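Minutes, methods subgroup
Present: GH (chair), OT, SY

1. OT presented the first of two proteins processed in the latest run. Sequence and structure tokens recorded below as shown on screen.
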Amino acid sequence: MANTFLLARGVPVGKSLAERDLVRTAREILDKAKLHRREIVLPVDAVVAEKIRRACASRVVDITKVGAGDMILRHRPAQHRNT
């Protein structure tokens, strides 16, 4: 779900799973939250890899640095930013 909200904020998510057909809805939710002075917490970094394989190397990147060929494997739970 976070990936859809990241896309709505214009943050690239590479080949990650996301509900791309719900980006508009996510954007509306973000706008309403801001209007009502509510916070939606989104990750600031993530563990990414080019493939989901045991032997495939993963790395931690700033959420704005997810490459086109990367897949977000998980968000780091302690690292979030309020929006």
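2. SY then presented the second protein from the same run.
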Amino acid sequence: MELPSYAKSDSYLILIPYGLQPLAAAALRGCAGGLILLTVLLALRVDLRVPRRDWATFLAYGVFGVALFFICSGLTQCCPE
């Protein structure tokens, strides 16, 4: 069985027998990285509070930056040409 190009990474090859889809594997990888980062920052007692004046910037980045990235990457996955 020939694997698609997105499924040829070592981390995904380990997860194939468990029936994990590529999008779920990416979400799992992102969540694990975020949890590790949060754990390290909390252990180092880094102040994670965001000043109120920066809330709009964070919201705009979340809505337009991250969402646009995932929309574009999703379009390339389903419609490569």
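Chair's summary of item 2: The chain has two domains: 1-48, 50-81.
Next meeting: continue with the remaining queue.
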